[in-house]
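TASK: fixed-backbone design
INPUT:
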């Protein structure tokens, strides 16, 4: 099924809930076939997000803390387009290329999520799509309708 925004999901009661896809306009979204965020009912999933600025360039090259801050700002923007905010996040997944940087990443994550306290995972991966990208974060949120 193509992500054209008109696909439907069924609830256990058999009612239909519309699927809403939210794009950021990056050239990769249509090529790879993904949306920055997808909302069905109260649930929003945000794709793996990197530390890109408005110009598409990586912010904080070589600095895991700065990249984490930018990523969370990008997550907040995507959530906002889908009708949510950081306060609605129930889970984050952090993929890092160097787990030794966990304290810097965790510090930035805690600055945004210290009171919210979503479930989270931090996993080391061998590499991400570009060597300048030190980490990528996914998020799931649930909002009140």
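OUTPUT:
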């Amino acid at each position: 099924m193509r992500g054209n925004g008109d696909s439907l999901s069924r609830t256990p009661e058999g009612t239909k809930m519309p699927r809403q896809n939210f794009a950021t306009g990056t050239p990769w979204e249509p090529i790879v076939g993904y949306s920055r965020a997808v909302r069905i009912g109260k649930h929003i999933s945000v794709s793996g997000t990197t530390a890109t600025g408005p110009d598409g360039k990586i912010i904080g090259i070589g600095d895991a803390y700065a990249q984490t801050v930018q990523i969370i700002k990008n997550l907040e923007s995507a959530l906002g387009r889908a009708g949510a905010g950081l306060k609605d996040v129930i889970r984050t997944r952090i993929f890092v290329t160097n787990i030794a940087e966990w304290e810097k990443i965790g510090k930035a994550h805690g600055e945004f999520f210290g009171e919210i306290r979503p479930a989270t995972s931090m996993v080391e991966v061998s590499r991400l799509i570009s060597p300048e990208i030190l980490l990528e974060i996914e998020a799931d949120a649930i909002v009140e309708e």
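COMMENT: Residues 97 and 125 are 5 Å apart (CA to CA).
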